Amino acid sequence: MIAFWPKAVPLRLRVFFRGTFLLLALATVALALTELREEKALAYRNYARLFERHAAQLTAILRHPAGQLALTNPAPEGARPPPQRPIVLPFAGIDFDDRIKARNAVEMAGCLVPYAGEAELCVAVGNNPFVGGFVYAVGRLVTGPLDTHPPGERDLSRAHRIRVEVTLRGATYRWLAPLESTGPARAAINGRLTGFAEDDAGRLAARPNREFRGWLWQEGGCLDGQPATTRDCPRRAFYSLRLPVPLFNDALQDAARPEWPPPDLASVHVHLTVLGPGDALPLFDSDLPPLRAPFALQDLKPQLVPGERLAIRRRGVERDLAVIVPDEPAAPVPPLPVRALIARLPVTATPPTLESREIVATRLGDYELHLSADVHRADQDLALVATRVGMFVAAMLAAILVTWLALEVRIVRRITALTARAATVRASVQGRGVEPPSFADLEGRDELGLLAQVFGGLLRRVTEDAAREQIRAEQERNLWHAVGHEILSPLQSLKALHARAGDPSLRYIERMQEAVRLLYGGDAPPDAFAARTLNVATLDVAAFLGHVAANAGAAGLRDVVLEPYPGPLVVRGDEYSLEDVVTHVLTNADRHRRPGTPIRIELERRDAGAEVRIRNAGPGIDPALLERIFEYGVTGDGGPGHRGQGLFVARTYMAKMGGTIRARNTDDGVEFVLTLALG
Fold first, then answer.
1. What are phi and psi of 360, to 5 degrees?
2. What pTM did the predictor assign?
3. pLDDT for res 437
4. Going by CATH, does the domain composed of 533-676 fall within 3.30.565.10?
């Protein structure tokens, strides 16, 4: 039993871990099923409430005059009545002589058909046969100044006018109605439209038709809302016409029980055009395609949701007037297992079919509205939601599985390995000749990796300290080399000048002080050179070069020959920095010249400035290095003590003085060209 216990403990821990995660997975699935069941019950209740609200909304829409207009003027599914066909209004007639009443009637009925240019037109008949067989044409348009027709004038083409043509039962009635003003001339015109009958040849009757009545009202304000100061701005105009149709009147007078609306009302065609003065194109033509058809019963489709069905029939008639079913959206089909699962979820008892019946009364008869819906239609939408939820549940189960595997690998395995290595460490401490194991693979931020992290951290700190010490030593060595490079030449010159009496020692001492002051800062040598501030002033470069050439021997530079230059040449520069530049160039020329050959210095005035050329005889520079030799750390020979710093300093100082330096190969050596700005 004692021997079995160490093996049984890890097994019990694994059973505990695996049982915990199995219970967690089962709880996740149970939670998802419970939530789906609650969502199904909620979806059924919401669907029932939405059905009741839709029934009330549809009834209210069809009881409105615009809805009654659609009921009394039904069209087959997929088709709409043409806008030029008269429709039956939900009113007995239109008070066409009153602008406000006429406009309110057509707007409330919703019979205005929009056209381009903000024009609208409603062609309709009343629902009361005793009002008379009239066709009403009411509309609005945007027009400029209106020209009226004076009474007694035979030429009607000088005024704005409306031509109307009504075709039915093989007969055609035409009228031409010019605009006659009823008041003094103003910016806005309110006028009468007097209708003259017109025959097939275009001849007008001598006297107007008394049954033809029409009015036109033009607003006083401009279309953009500004007050009308002139008659030239466009304005909105509203017109109302009553068109007498003798065939309608004859049928109403001859029949004992007149049938209204006429059974052939759908075949009646009304063509209305608004003409301006002259023979120009019409301002409005009702035969042009409208922007939108009038409201129809099929426009109720957006009010319905999938699963609902609206049937409309006239009371006492068995055949449905219209059946409206909403368009099914192109939704993805849920998987069959998900649909079967949703169907099996138990919910509170709900009727499978919802029904609502309402009556809409009109002057032409009563209409029955039968709205039905299948409550199980909500299962499809819920199945789509369940599919998405199932993806999350699957993701959660996958996360549980990954977490269990991670614990198996991350904790259980590490506990076993840490226990085994702890025994090995104990054996090595006891001096049993066992090599201590490595804990690098067990390091981490948790409790199990604490011991391995401590040992690994100690090793890393020792390694990092050694590396930092090496880097610090290398940086100090580079700094002292840079300082030595700058101090070497002035010290040598100072030593040579102190061997005899003379003033030049003062100059080299000052140069040494400048170099020490520059390089003993905290920056790296390239940054120190770039940050140095020069005292740029004017100096005679000819005298300066003569002084440098005369004292070159004291700096260890032999055979430096300066070509004479006639007179002074003033340039802009810093005397000490320029001397450093020339000295660095002379030092490089001396190192690479052939023994026994001189170093020549020439001075010449150019348009761009003063040009100093320093030339030696010796090997040329590799063409690939002609530009790179001025970079820090690039040297031609790379020998000991040559750090590639002198020419970098030369180019840096020349740039700060507004000059340039470049190197080029000649036939027998190398030439450095220094360009300085004239003072």
1. -115, 120
2. 0.48
3. 59
4. yes
